[in-house]
Amino acid sequence: MKKPLSRRWAMTCLATCLGLASLNAVAQEYPSRQPVRFIVTFAVGGGSDTIARSLNTKLGEVLGQTVIVENKAGAGGAIATDYVAKAQPDGYNILFTVSSHSINQALMTNLPFNTERDLRGVTLIGALPQVLAVHPSVPANNLQEWLALGRKDPRFKQYATGGVGSPGHFAGGLLQSMAKEPLDHIPYKGAGPALSDVMSNQVPAVLGTLSGAMAHIKNGKLKAIAITSSQRTPLLPDVQTIAESGIAGYESDTWIGTFVPKNTPEAVVQKIHKATLQALSDPGVKARIDSLAGRIIGGSSAELDALVSREIKQFTQVVKEQGIKPE
Questions:
Q1: 232-252: b or e for each residue (b if 16 or more CB lie within 10 Å)?
Q2: What pLDDT, on a 0 to 100 scale, did the predictor assign at position 42?
Q3: Cα–Cα distance measured from residue 235 to residue 293, given in angstroms and rounded to the nearest whole number
Q4: Which residues of 5-22 are buried (b: 16+ CB within 10 A; e: fewer)?
């Protein structure tokens, strides 16, 4: 004779069914209930914020709902990420962030969230190449010449970035690990001061997004010597990639992607993803991203999650090898 089902087991089944029903209801009504918010990890005016503000209107048109951009800057993006990680998993709060998302998990030991456990990717929107550029007086025209200078004179090993834990810092750290070359990182409080000191020849080199440095390269105040992408950029067709320069397999773009809380229904994630792809196909959005030296990728949720997982492992090794500490 079969034993009767326990009351606790029955209540668990009921709760599970009600939860699934609730998630299905969320997916079916999304996004009719309220405006959707892009929670941007950095301040107004930066590259990721500019792309968010070029995308939100078109995305809203596709979704049939207003998409608001809200900046929650601070802690290298961790404040905004924590906010979204703890939000309701209903698709109304979407994290709009960059590769600092992976860096923070590798670098910071006391984060109030776990990047892979608490969030899931929606769309790998695109990437902004980074550039290694030097003061015009530096007698190097490519990466190998610059590294050779550093072996002769330690001052040339210095490179400025927008700060400890910035994508430029970890692009340099990855270069140091893969090339087995000791470099001297000079962190600044933002990309602007870093660029300024290199242009005034206080530091010989800078590593940061091409979009921030391009105007100074064009007017001759900086000299580009290497690109961090896997392929050359059409904006600087004569500048080699770091991989071409002898560091095989090197790639360290600043990617841009969107994330939602882990338990967000798959149907909601896919609705946001498909709408994002449609918005990215708009000529105006594409032109804005092109103007920032960016390239559109439109990668899937799974591709973005795989990228984050791979980078966390890679950057954790860089942190360990070089003893990098957060500020």
A1: ebebbeebbbbbbbebeebbb
A2: 87
A3: 7
A4: eeeeeeeeeeeeeeeeee
Determine the Cα–Cα distance for residues 225 and 143; give it in Å rounded to an integer: 6
Instruction: Find the helix or strand (DSSP H, E) in which 145 lies.
Output: helix 143-152
**Assign residue 291 a region: left if phi > 0, alpha if psi is -120 to 50, beta otherwise?**
alpha
Average pLDDT, the chain: 92
Which residues fall within 8 angstroms of residue 152, CB to CB, at 6 or more apart? none
Q: Report d(CA 253, CA 231) in Å as an integer.
A: 11
Question: Which residues, 6+ apart, have CB-to-CB distance to 141 below 8 Å?
Answer: 223, 225
Cα distance between residue 304 and residue 120, in whole Å: 8
Query: Tens digits of per-residue pLDDT, 44-94?
Result: 877 888 899 999 999 999 999 999 999 999 888 999 999 999 999 999 999
The token duo for 237 is 């067709």
Give the residue carrying structure tokens 């009921």: 14
Crossing angle, helix 301-322 and helix 266-280, to 10 degrees?
90
CATH number at residue 203: 3.40.190.10
Q: Is the dihedral of CA 136, 138, 143, 145 positive or negative?
A: positive
Question: Do residues 122 and 40 share a domain?
Answer: yes
Residue 190 lies in a domain: yes
Same domain, 192 and 260: no
Task: Give every strand in the sheet of 130-134, ordered side by side.
Answer: 184-187, 158-161, 205-209, 130-134, 223-227
Domain containing 143 equals: 130-227
110 and 140 in a single domain? The answer is no
pLDDT digits (tens, 9 = 90+) for 191-246: 889 999 999 999 999 999 998 899 999 999 999 999 999 999 999 999 999 999 99
Residues 105 and 147 in one domain: no
Residue 17 has pLDDT above 60, yes or no: no
How far is it, in rounded angstroms, from Cα 195 to Cα 208? 9
